[in-house]
Q: What sequence folds into this?
């Protein structure tokens, strides 16, 4: 079972074409293992990206150093998975 | 144990076996209008079941709906199952459903990517792709909504097998996609193609692989806006409407681009309720509200398709 402890989902808001391009470059960086839930597309359209805990710092530094606005949308995915599993267990009972 | 569709809990997430069992229950309970077809097998040999809603006739014009091609979007499969029960139980009571099924057949693929769905239950909750193996790569799976023969391999799809939007080695390489394509082609009279996803509340029409406008843009935009308004009327859920390319992003190899190019004018994709705050883990208490509001939108599209034969 994959564990998502500490993984976060960031909502990233590129404000111009250059920032969209940078996000697309970020997406192509395979070692980061980013999972874009909503792909970068146009300026002012948010992109949502799941970032593994191990890469959080790298990704945040990348965004902040280039002035790309973001917020943490989901603090800890594993907590959400655990909650969902608890609900399903209760439901089955 | 859940023994029949009257006691089944539609407001909960279920594993594949339970969903398939419930599909059988619906067929058993409404045998006059619902039957089950197998249109193929997934990569891992799971059956691909379609519920057929029909009041008879031969090769009537039809509406196709598929749900859950992206495995992790669980509210999609749950909504499709609720919808199946809704159509079956409303027949003879809802004039709109009567009129639809007296004119057209409806095919509903409740779990379009069963391997991925099982994997998302047992191994990785965030799994989106199929489970096919790619020769020469350690990574598994293809994004089945980048695998259709519509601008295949173009912008908005990845050639990297490890990517979550990997388009696959060739168009229709995924048996889950090919089975739907074969079914639609062999049927020959499908007039609407609706694909249901869930993330960020959108109702879209072609194209995704190009930002060019389709010939029927004005009509489809109008149909989609009417449907989105009907959907919003229930709980106020706001939807964005438009072509895939401008509403979200350019994405090639998508199902509704293929269906439109194949000649199915009324091709739409829903992205159901999910603000992103829960990701794909939409709390179970939102399943039925999501399904209920989606039904309003679907019915609006059905009525337009029924009243505008082509």
A:
């Amino acid at each position: 079972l994959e564990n998502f402890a500490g993984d976060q989902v960031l909502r990233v808001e590129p404000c111009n074409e250059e920032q969209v391009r940078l996000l697309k470059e970020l997406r192509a960086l395979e070692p980061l293992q980013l999972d874009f839930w909503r792909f970068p597309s146009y300026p002012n359209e948010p992109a949502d990206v799941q970032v593994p805990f191990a890469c959080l710092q790298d990704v945040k530094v990348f965004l902040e150093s280039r002035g790309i606005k973001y917020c943490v949308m989901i603090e800890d995915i594993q907590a959400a998975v655990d909650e969902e599993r608890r609900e399903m267990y209760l439901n089955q009972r | 144990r859940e023994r029949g569709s009257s006691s089944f809990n539609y407001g909960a997430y279920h594993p594949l076996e339970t969903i398939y069992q419930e599909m059988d229950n619906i067929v058993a309970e409404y045998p006059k209008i619902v039957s089950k077809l197998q249109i193929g097998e997934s990569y891992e040999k799971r059956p691909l079941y379609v519920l057929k809603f029909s009041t008879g006739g031969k090769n009537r014009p039809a509406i196709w709906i598929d749900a859950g091609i992206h495995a992790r979007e669980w509210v999609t499969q749950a909504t499709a199952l609720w919808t199946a029960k809704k159509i079956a139980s409303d027949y003879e009571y809802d004039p709109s459903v009567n009129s639809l099924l007296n004119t057209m057949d409806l095919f509903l693929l409740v779990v379009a990517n069963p391997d991925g769905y099982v994997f998302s239950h047992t191994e990785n909750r965030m799994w989106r792709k199929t489970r096919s193996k790619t020769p020469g790569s350690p990574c598994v799976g293809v994004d089945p909504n980048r695998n259709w023969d519509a601008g295949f391999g173009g912008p908005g799809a990845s050639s990297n097998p490890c990517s979550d939007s990997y388009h696959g080695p060739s168009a229709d390489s995924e048996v889950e996609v090919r089975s739907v394509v074969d079914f639609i082609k062999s049927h020959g009279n499908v007039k609407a193609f609706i694909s249901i996803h869930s993330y960020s509340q959108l109702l879209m029409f072609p194209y995704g692989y190009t930002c060019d406008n389709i010939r029927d843009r004005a009509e489809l935009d109008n149909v989609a806006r009417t449907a989105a308004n009907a959907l919003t009327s229930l709980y106020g859920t706001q939807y964005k409407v438009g072509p895939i390319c401008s509403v979200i992003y350019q994405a090639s190899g998508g199902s509704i681009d293929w269906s439109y190019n194949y000649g199915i004018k009324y091709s739409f994709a829903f992205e159901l309720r999910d603000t992103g705050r829960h990701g794909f883990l939409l709390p179970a208490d939102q399943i039925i509200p999501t399904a209920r509001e989606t039904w309003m939108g679907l019915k609006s599209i059905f009525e337009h398709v029924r009243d505008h034969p082509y």
